[in-house]
């Protein structure tokens, strides 16, 4: 039956609202990561950090669809975006990066170990492939309780060559657990490309070999990611069985702050290649689509940008004015 | 009190805790349909069903992930390693995940998991199946490490381990599975961690052991008693937390100490206890602390070589005599 003008217009409103939120989230992630880079060079952030620039659609297209709390998210050390998407305040994330008591892990975790269990975020993981065996247990807990929840587990193309990942895939496939696997295929395991590290680069085939249904999706297009994730989540919630999405994407910067700094990434890829991928930028693409549909004007985009800059600035002010952890907390939380 | 074997006491502890708390479940290789490699989990699949007694593939990383992740999400898994030798496959999940998640999260995540299975040296099982590696785990902040000697302790310590909110490494001894002892009937019988027990009173020398090492000490004490030497035997029960107060109290009386363990000597539990005795009671000692330990070699197969590599009560007797010389 044809929809009335009023029905179409209300659907439009919902689309406009929803996409504007996702657009704002992607811009927030991009600005946050750019700011984090500056703060590292001001020596306000220590250790090591891994940026998500270019991969925003993988988070914005999936996490906002989840039921939080209830569903769970696990991811890698490239985890700032995931925390923000789960609803962790930018201030608590920035404070964690700066090693402050108000950080989301009280300053004990740092960049690679952001966490926010109240929002379903069970943390970043500093070990390549590390979250995948953990996801098997989280998925098992969901099945054990008999709810319709889902565990979403992110990992990279490098993890596909870790043994534990395949042990976990087999068991998740065997026990039929409600886990959505998101392979963030950004083409490089640190400095080693998929073609130089992986004899069988058909990752979907590998998931299917473990009894997990899978598909390959363009990770540079938020609408495509969102639709694929929606399909996958429906499948999981309906059948209780796992699903695997390989999302092809690209990180614009180096693996971590080390090769960002020195442009060490030029040893394994060219500036032309990076520029080519940037033509498919997920934020620009969504903005174009929204402008074409009349959902967003250049002025509104500018306004969102300004609001996000203020939000990130407020996060910095919050973090910088927060105290360091108390020295006598050194031995707290070794045990529960 | 009921008399039962060490492995039955472990089974009873698991059964009681699974009855008490619906969040407790068991997983591991052949724990269900096969009834347990050592029959520790016999009958549990039939009693609790396949959701709570989970047969796994031979995938130790998977087992450790299943346990760690489900504990992070609020369950209380008891994961069996067929032997602790095979747990080496899972070291990253154990050390980098289970042991650290609470600290890394600033206390926002708990990981109430028990990893259990047989450890200790065996009979001609050679290098990959015959070893005791408690100091690997004791060295890692975040783990509690439990090594029971008696059936009653196996029962009470395992129940405490399952109720504990931190990850617990629970090392049974395959060589003790058949030993008998009395176990309290109380379904809430738990043995507190970090409380060593004096198994035999004496005034001449303190013998410190845990797991089957206590048996070595008790036999040595018996032999020495016939010669008029009275040894005090301490069973540590838990390596982490470590009850040094009981050890120090004893050496302040005996002024001598021998530590007996099956694991390798180098950088071991015995090394730690000796160092702490010197730190806490140096001026009390009338003789250097002696350590009786496994030879620092991969376990050989040949009977005579294996015998030479495994410590015995006569090694303890000789060590005590050196402290008295």
> What structural class do the secondary elements of chain A suggest?
alpha/beta
Task: Give the count of structural domains of chain A.
Answer: 1
Uncertain residue segments of chain B: none
Helix and strand run of chain B = EHEHEHEHHEHEHEEEEHEEHEHEHH
CATH topology of the largest domain in chain B: Rossmann fold
- Strand order, sheet with most strands of chain A: 1-2-3-7-6
Mean pLDDT of chain A: 96
Question: According to CATH, what is the topology of chain A?
Answer: Rossmann fold
Q: Name the CATH homologous superfamily of the largest domain in chain B.
A: Thiamin diphosphate (ThDP)-binding fold, Pyr/PP domains
Describe the structure concisely.
With 336 residues, chain A is α/β, with parallel strands linked by helices. Chain A contains 13 helices and 7 strands. Chain B has 2 domains: 2-183, Rossmann fold (3-Layer(aba) Sandwich); 197-324, 3-Layer(aba) Sandwich (Rossmann fold), CATH 3.40.50.
Features:
heterodimer, A: 336 residues, alpha/beta, Rossmann fold, five-stranded parallel beta sheet, two-stranded antiparallel sheet, 13 helices, 7 strands, 48% helix, globular, B: 325 residues, 2 domains, seven-stranded mixed beta sheet, five-stranded mixed beta sheet, 12 helices, 14 strands, 37% helix
Overall description:
The complex is a heterodimer of chains A (336) and B (325). With 336 residues, chain A is α/β, with parallel strands linked by helices. Chain A has a single domain (5-322), classed as Thiamin diphosphate (ThDP)-binding fold, Pyr/PP domains (Rossmann fold, 3-Layer(aba) Sandwich). Chain A has helices at residues 5-41, 56-60, 80-86, 90-97, 131-145, 163-175, 194-197, 203-209, 222-239, 257-261, 271-278, 282-292, 298-320; strands at 72-74, 151-156, 179-185, 188-189, 192-193, 213-218, 243-248. In chain A, the strands form two sheets. In chain A, strands 1-2-3-7-6 form a five-stranded parallel sheet, sandwiched between helices. In chain A, helix 1 crosses helix 3 (80-86), helix 1 runs antiparallel to helix 12 and helix 4 (90-97) crosses helix 13. Chain A starts with a helix and ends in a 16-residue tail after the last helix. Chain B is globular. Chain B is built from twelve helices and 14 strands. Chain B folds into two domains: 2-183, Thiamin diphosphate (ThDP)-binding fold, Pyr/PP domains (Rossmann fold), CATH 3.40.50.970; 197-324, Rossmann fold (3-Layer(aba) Sandwich). Chain B has helices spanning 6-20, 44-48, 60-72, 91-98, 101-104, 134-138, 151-163, 213-225, 244-254, 269-281, 303-309, 313-324, and strands at 2-5, 24-28, 53-55, 76-80, 114-119, 144-146, 168-173, 180-183, 197-200, 205-209, 231-235, 238-240, 257-264, 290-294. A seven-stranded mixed sheet of chain B has the order 3-2-4-5-7-6-12, sandwiched between helices. Chain B has a five-stranded mixed sheet with strand order 9-11-10-13-14, with helices on both faces. Classes of the chains: A alpha/beta (336), B alpha/beta (325). Chain A binds chain B through residues 72, 103-109, 113, 115-117, 122-123, 125-127, 130, 132-144, 163-164, 167-168, 170-171, 174-175, 332-336, and chain B through 25, 51, 54, 56-57, 59-62, 64-75, 77, 92-93, 96-97, 101-112, 141-142, 144, 164-166.
